[in-house]
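Table S5 (text form). Sequence records supplied for joint modeling of the two-component complex.
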Amino acid sequence: MTELEQALVALGREVEFPPTPDLAGAVRARIDRRARARRWLVLALAVLVVGIGIAMAVPDARSAILRFFHVGSVKVERVDTLPAAREAPLTAGLGTPRTRAEAERRAGFRMILPKFKGAPPSRYYALNGLIATVIRSGSTPLLLTELRGDQAWLGKKIVDPQTKVEGVSVGSHGGLFLSGGRHVLMYQISPSDVGQLFPRFAGNVLLWTARDRTFRLEGEVSRDEALRLGRLITG
Amino acid sequence: MTLTVEGRPLDESQLVERARRGDHEAYSELVHAYQGIAFRTAYLIAGGATEAEDAAQEGFVKAWRALGRFRPGAPFKPWLLRIVANEAHNRRRSAGRRARLAFRAAAAEPSGDAAPSPEASVLDSERRTELLAAVNGLPEDQRLVVALRYFAGLSEDEVAETLGIAPGTVKSRTSRALERLREAYD
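The corresponding structure-token record, covering 421 residues in total, follows.
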């Protein structure tokens, strides 16, 4: 190194640089937010159909869409007038009850089901990419639905203005809890058959994603109890 | 003999690999290790503290997103600084300014009690003022190479990677810059 270069190095030690800000904290906060947003995105793709296909098939909803909730990339449609729906049993529209093995064959995947206290469920319902069964919280029946992660066309939530939609964490997994008001659950039998819908009013609902699956727990259940059960199911 | 690079953690490759697998904690350690050099690099390019902070922060976030494309085993610092430098260039262009380097307050008036270091003794007060003015007066491409090489302490290869130019270009710009600076120094 020449004398001039040594002089430049010495000069560099005397040059004023502004103090380095705490970038580590700011960057960590941003990548943490991004990770949460990605979990929401998976959830959106898996359960809450953001395309307009189903909504366009329901005239009441089509005319009355007011705005969207944006949670990350998730959109939950809030409307002032719910589409025509009816009170119906939790398993309405899900077809014939089957054994677990039969349901898994029909759905095309094996269900992740934890060991609950007491006897395991005996009735399962299946559509392509979806398995559902009824579990109990005390004496309260709850519909547990498991969807393969890529089944983005299967379900949609349309909520009225009184429905509370909040982001929650189920263990380390992101999710949504819908409560109060009324919201309508619709199933679509196939992507090409948008007319065959089974709209019904739904109870409180916890939605979350884990292990490339989407889980849905519905019934007269509190947020805390739903989260407890969610953690039991997917850890 | 073992040489260590200031600010570079010894287990960098492990941290990078963990970060590539999505470990936020590992990436935070990398950010902590490199935030100083990233900020100074951004400051030299962008010309302002606010722009530099924005550029460095955005650079770290973009680097996190791009970790999947990072070649395992490659040096992390120049790869990161290239991303930060791109962000700083964007902000400098929009702000239309360049950093005018100045002495730290303490360095401008060195204490008469303190014994000068061997390096500091190379320059007396008048010559270092003239030399810094000469650096500030260099064409931007030469000034950046000199500042990154001698003030920020990057190697020639790191300067090349950071600025996205060939090592030969770094050499030629450095050579032309030193030629100009010699006039102020001699």
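Note: DSSP finds nine helices and no strands in chain B.
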